[in-house]
Amino acid sequence: MNGALLVAGTTSDAGKSVLVAGLCRRLAREGVKVAPFKAQNMSLNSMVTADGAEIGRAQAMQAAAAGIAPEAAMNPVLLKPGARMSSQVVLLGRPVAEVSALDYRDLKPRLFDAVLDSLADLRARFDVVVCEGAGSPTEINLRDRDITNMGLARAANLPVLVVGDIDRGGVFAHLFGTLALLSPEDQALICGFVVNKFRGDAKLLAPGLDRISALTGRPVLGVLPYLTGLWLDVEDSLALEADRGVAAPPLGEDILRVAVVRLPRISNFTDIDALSVEPGVVVRFASTPAELADADLVVVPGTRATVEDLAWLRERGLDTALARRAAAGRPTLGICGGYQMLGREIDDAHESRLGRVAGLGLLPVRVVFAADKTLARPAGFAGGAPVSAYEIHHGIVTVEGGAPLFTDPDGVPLDGCRDGAVWGTLWHGALENDAFRRAFLAEVAAVAGRRFTVSPDTSFEAARQARLDALGDLVADHLDNAAVDRLITQGAPAGLRFVPPGV
Predict the structure, then answer these.
(1) Are strands 128-132 and 413-415 parallel, antiparallel or unpaired?
(2) Which segments constitute the CobQ/CobB/MinD/ParA nucleotide binding domain (predicted)?
(3) Going by fewer Cβ within 10 Å, which terminus of the chain is more open, N or C?
(4) Going from the N-terminus, what domains does the chain have, and what CATH number goes with each?
(5) What is the pLDDT of residue 238?
(6) What is the DSSP letter of 433?
């Protein structure tokens, strides 16, 4: 098998990332050398590849589904929204500009060249490349600068599947309208539809599927049932679930309650996914002091706008709630931007440009923002357990007291700070290390006074692989895979047209 396919969506969070991951998993299990690709990703969830490139976390997850290492070519353009209605542009894994939406137009030629070169490179090295669009292909106000939906499909002659989320309602209007708003040249590459998140009796849906196919001249190539618990490595905050639930009943007498502060510009909230796989751990997102008060552990996560989100914390009284927790010896963990907020002072001449700002004063550290971004894949030890992680930040932390969180084999500090029941680290992904996570949760439970027993054998990587297998099964069982494979190898059928009813 050899070829490529683009998965577009009627809306953001329609199921593009899930479908691409499922297709990659299904093809990889069949022995196909497959790679994911997203030309342009707007997301605050990112990771660092082995060679130090920053890409979207969803593409790293899709690479895992394909059984390959993630690389910059899989996500050549990453946009990271920040304060002042601007975004950082990351090109081939490195930041190159901070631009407004209007300024971004001027970068298009340079970015599109990189997109097409990256796609060509992947297609030369892999049998199949499964591409993911962004948002909707019918953002008609942006079509002239589109480099990730129909602009990419036209340039690379890619057949396109459109996925719609029926759980939101209006899926038939979404599918029909998506096709109707495109130009005839774009319509010629739309080859079929996929309905996502269906609940109920498929017989009740059949008349609608037949009608949408008749109206559009495109087949519905699958109906994916609604499945819970597939939130691992989600792309953006639209996919946040208020409560991650409990992976399994607690092994001890108590559950462990974790509250994650839902910052306005929350980033890399995938850090808490590893907590959610532990039996008896309940993870919820919180934005009020009351929601922090009864939590056994509060996590202040990363953010793309540290100083602005610190002001938001204060406006909502969350600073007082965190201070009360620290005074009472109740556990709090800050990660990256959250860690920086917990310190004594932030000197920011680059991100917010507000200069020196008082931190929350819960950890003895000071932060200075550097112009250059740190992208790294550090490794160390915590309590004798090996820990590997990744770093994405502009803030440089100086520790003035407390104890380090991570050290080298000889005990030399590498990162982080602990003072009482408050922990902080710049390292993302540390909780994915099973031994460290177990030791950390055991200490949190002890400090919180919970009769909570940590599972001795929970594996985060095994949980991730099980969920990727579930996505592969979803695609294998509910798509017309023979038709999908024909599109991959043969491209869009010739002569596809769309004639609106009554015309």
Answers:
(1) unpaired
(2) 6-230
(3) C
(4) 3-231+464-490 (3.40.50.300), 248-457 (3.40.50.880)
(5) 47
(6) S
pLDDT in tens, 363-418: 999 999 999 999 999 999 998 899 999 999 999 999 999 999 999 999 999 999 99
Q: How far apart are CA 263 and CA 281, in angstroms?
A: 21
DSSP class of residue 74? G
Q: From the CA atom positions of the chain, what is the Rg in Å?
A: 23
Look at the block and give the residue holding tokens 């700070």.
417
Higher pLDDT, 240 or 474: 474
Greatest mean pLDDT among 14-18, 19-23, 229-233, 451-455:
19-23
Residue 299: other Cβ atoms inside 10 A: 24
- DSSP β-ladder status, 281-286 and 332-335: unpaired
Asked if 170 and 197 count as a contact pair (C-beta separation under 8 A), the reply is no
Residue 137 amino acid letter? P
> Is the separation of the CB atoms in 21 and 36 below 8 Å?
yes
State whether residue 165 is helix, strand or coil: strand
Q: Which helix (H) or strand (E) holds 471?
A: helix 460-478
Residue 101 is predicted with a pLDDT of 63
From the list 24, 131, 336, 417, the catalytic residue is: 336
DSSP 224-260: EEP-SS--TT-SSGGG--SB---SS--SSSS-EEEEE
Helix H, strand E, coil C: the string for 23-40 is: HHHHHHHCCCCEEEECCE
Contact criterion met (CB below 8 Å) for 14 and 502: no
Amino acid identity for residue 219 in this structure = P
Residue 397 structure tokens: 């932390």
Closest CA to 434 of 399, 483, 386, 368: 386
> For 322-341, what is each residue's pLDDT tens digit?
999 999 999 999 999 999 99
Separation between Cα atoms, residue 60 and residue 78, nearest integer Å: 13
| Distance separating alpha carbons of residues 283 and 277, to the nearest angstrom | 10
Instruction: Give the integer Cα–Cα distance in Å for 232 and 334.
Output: 21
Q: Check residue 124 and give its pLDDT.
A: 98
pLDDT digits (tens, 9 = 90+) for 221-242: 999 999 876 655 655 544 555 4
At 114 the pLDDT is: 96
Mean of pLDDT values over 482-489: 98
Distance of alpha carbon 2 from the chain centroid: 28
- Neighbouring residues of 401: CB distance < 8 A, sequence distance ≥ 6: 364, 417, 419
C-alpha span between 74 and 168 (Å, rounded): 29
